[in-house]
Amino acid sequence: MTDFQVPSWGYWVMGVGFIVFIALLVAYIHKNRGFKRPFFASPYVLWLIVFTVLPCLLVCYFSFTDPAGNFTLDNFKNFWDSNYNARKAIDPAELDTYLSMGLTLNDLGLARNSINIDTLVFSLWMAFLCTVICLLLGYPAAHIMADRDFKLGPTLVILFIVPMWMNFLLRTIAMMSLLEDNGLINTILEWVGIGRQKLLNNTAAVQVGMIYNFLPFMVFPIYNVLNKMDYKLSEAAMDLGCDKWHTFYKVTLPLSVPGIVSGITMVFMPAVTTFYISRLLGGGKVQLFGDLIEAKFLSTSVTEWNVGSALSLLMMILILASLGLLRKADPKGEGGGIV
Fold this sequence. Notes:
mainly alpha
């Protein structure tokens, strides 16, 4: 297996960045004659440069280069046609010989394969379904939790927070134990007379796992907005003749839009890039775009690693574009977050 080498300029970027950071730090201390509050954010800035900015630059570099470091667009062509590299690697004379024998590219396994595009579309659909279901389940929950007349609201908040203290992997394994053939759910179904069902290793199981893991990311942004909302506005609407439904539609819902946008962002982004949930709950039968990228980097072929970088870059562009569109509805970031 050939080692995946970081280009020399990557080390230069880290070195120059560290030197610039130290120089700016010294200049800041000299200018302000000591330390002020913004100074304590400087370690985070260095961490962000080394572990976020630099990896993104490396992904861009490998996306546009081949294993030899030469510029190429073949990695993106492989996204459109997953057999592009295999077709390019075969000797043209040998290919002509096969074709002259009456064989087709499909017979040789070299015809255009759209598995990359199909997997991306499927991942977007799964993430869309997850986001919609989380919104349908999360908004009523957040509304109930933020209701001042509901005394158990703080208790529900704690119940949503407690599972998040557990590791993401452990939560998924716990869901796996519930859905398995001899799990609790199938035991209950058999007890009531319905019989055992195939709940694991399918698309539905992956969707349930995604909803379970990402639902709190929809609930809390909406809850934060509703909890901060001035209830005098609702009372004024009801004083002017609106019933509860019209008050909700005319006042509460529009004011909660920033929380909805933040929740959609926080659910859709990780849902479209997830891969471990599909591996555990899908049993290898459900492949998302994250699984495809992981498979590229786990391949023994160095060429596949460059293709994986191109797929990662495309995913980043897609996420940034989606984030930009969603943020237009909440430009000031009023939706808040988990806390």
